[in-house]
Amino acid sequence: MPEDPALTLALPKGRVMQEALRLLRAAGMRLELAGAERALRFDAGDATLIVMRNADVPTYVELGVADAGVVGKDVLAEAGSTLYEPVDLGIAACRLSLIRPRGATGAMARVASKYPRTAADYLRRKGSTAEVVKLAGNVELACLSGLADAVVDVVQTGETLKANDLEEVDVILESSARFVVNRAALKLKAEHLRPLIAALRDLTGD
Amino acid sequence: MTGAPPDGTRFVPPELAQARTVALERLNRLYASWGYAPVEVPALERYDPEHPRSEQSFKLSDRDSGVLALRSDFTPALAQLVRASFPEAAAGDAGALRLRYSGTVWHAIHPELARTREFTQVGIELIGVSHARADAELIHLARESVRAVGLAPRVEVGNPGFVRALFELAAVPEERRGTLADAIDRKDRSDIRALVDELELSGPAAAALAEVPDLYGGSEVLDDARRLAPWPQARAEIDRLEGVVAQFEDDSELLLDLGMARRLAYYTGVTFRAYTFDFGQPLLGGGRYDGALLPHAAGFSIGLERLLSALPAPPPASAPRVVATDDVAARRLRAAGIAVLRASDADRAEALAEARARGVPFLVHDGRVEELTAGEPGELAALAALLGEGEEGAAGA
């Protein structure tokens, strides 16, 4: 019987997964999807891959179900993660920003976000007493519909904002995808993870 | 009343409670064999905003408008006990004081990621001394604690004093040290570089900060660290770690990490955490905190529930083997360590039905044992012998 791969990696569904796979392969890992694109967990050769929503990656890695994973800094900040983040992969770059209707200047009473913790921390730092409302998606709509007078959300190009007459008021966090590692795994599986980290750093110039 | 306990607390079923008892017994036996004396401290404390975990404590109002807190950590309470009851040891004038404890602590946190709000801490403190032998004793016992419950230990050992020395050399402003230490502890070079730029730190020590996270591995790490940070203040901290490692004949289970920078303001010397294979979370953590609560003190604590969750599922709690109507015979068996249920009815037929219904294999009635369903090989004979069947005048238990 073939042995299980030495590493389990948690990857977020979608485009980031494709870019992460490209980097991991370039770093020397043999990863074959072999028509298993729709599977949630599969043996890909040098690693078992488990595929999930990006917000779940920190949980899987923190608890050690996955040894390592790829996830955005925005998600890590929101999760209050203390995972090892040894490589900034430089992919999926975006900003987490405070967004308001163009020209709005008054005090904020309610701020909507998919990132309630990060939003609340930011508002507290700025001395704002606004309440934070957690939403699941399309946060801009909260501003447009009057649900909230500001939102905290991801900005990639700013095109969506322009089209909806919204304005990026302040950048809270510059985000990019990180290679994250479980604390026990980095130490106990160093012989697999250390060379991988070194190779990823060479590729990304980190 | 609803059936479920509050969030972040739980009921413990018999098989798990049994596994807890066994683990606690083994740990206590280990610590006792090294001369650690048991102490107890109240679960109710006076609320103190200066307490290291004050933000995580459950608060209660006392009768006279005072505020109490549920115990959130043993170490501060233990330090109070030591100052009150062992002033000489507290001052470092009485040699080493070794104490152990176990009990419940409560954290008023949002229960998530396998962190509960009510859990059990078991730990030891070595007070009144500060040297490599004391640090090594604790690391050894950390290792043995993991082994005592049947797991293979790996202990990571660091010295946050090294990071602190670099902070001094690089003149990192006091108010940003926590943030920078967190980035180092996460091995997040990207954040470290961003902070170094933001704080406009310059010079060789500042440049070394982003390399600190990679100083983990075997004893070769010590030389790597000396090359990275050749300044006397930093070297003294590397030497301190080396002095502790040198106490071990076999250091193969030790993993050094000079990038450990957790709770930099609290820990002053060597810190450590224990892991085991195929389990992603630390089983215990501790270190030296001279001056934080007592002039000289170090210790560690185990999260008992976490430790138990690293073990294979416990076997079903052992059911009693005997139902007895005969109290004298039952007393003999219990004295021999056999669990005996007292029959609800002294009548043989009733007791027999009770034993069958409960799946208990043996019935003892009128001084005699009967096998109802097959017991372990030889079990019937052993029970009969204990009851002195066939010999008149057997010694009473």
Question: How many helix segments of chain A?
Answer: 8
The biggest chain-chain interface is:
A-B, 25 and 25 residues
Overall, the morphology of chain A is: elongated
Quote the CATH topology of the largest domain in chain A: D-Maltodextrin-Binding Protein, domain 2
CATH class of the largest domain in chain A: Alpha Beta
Q: Give a count of the beta strands of chain A, DSSP E runs of length 2 or more.
A: 11
Order of helices and strands of chain A: EHEEHEHEEEHEHEHEEHH
The main pleated sheet of chain B reads as: 9 strands, mixed
CATH 2nd-level architecture of the domain at 14-159 and 269-309 in chain B: 2-Layer Sandwich
Query: Number of domains in the coordinates of chain A?
Result: 2
Q: Superfamily at the CATH H level of the largest domain in chain A?
A: Periplasmic binding protein-like II
Main beta-sheet strand count, sense and barrel state of chain A: 6 strands, mixed
Radius of gyration of chain A: 19 Å
Give a written overview of the molecule.
The complex is a heterodimer of chains A (206) and B (397). Chain A is α/β, with parallel strands linked by helices. Chain A folds into 2 domains: 7-92 and 176-204, Periplasmic binding protein-like II (D-Maltodextrin-Binding Protein, domain 2, 3-Layer(aba) Sandwich), CATH 3.40.190; 94-175, D-Maltodextrin-Binding Protein, domain 2 (3-Layer(aba) Sandwich), CATH 3.40.190.10. In chain A, 33% of the residues lie in helices and 30% in strands. Chain A is elongated, with a radius of gyration of 19 Å. Chain B is 36% helix and 19% strand. Chain B has helices at 14-33, 74-85, 87-90, 132-148, 160-169, 177-185, 189-198, 204-208, 220-228, 232-245, 304-309, 327-335, 348-358, 379-386, and strands at residues 37-38, 44-46, 59-61, 67-70, 97-106, 118-127, 153-158, 216-217, 254-257, 271-276, 284-288, 297-303, 322-324, 340-342, 362-365, 368-371. In chain B, strand 15 and strand 16 form a beta hairpin. In chain B, helix 4 packs across helix 10 (232-245) and helix 5 (160-169) runs antiparallel to helix 10. The longest helix of chain B has 20 residues, at 14-33. The model of chain B is unreliable at 392-397 (pLDDT under 50). Chains A and B meet through helix 2, strand 5 and helix 7 of A and helix 7 and strand 8 of B.
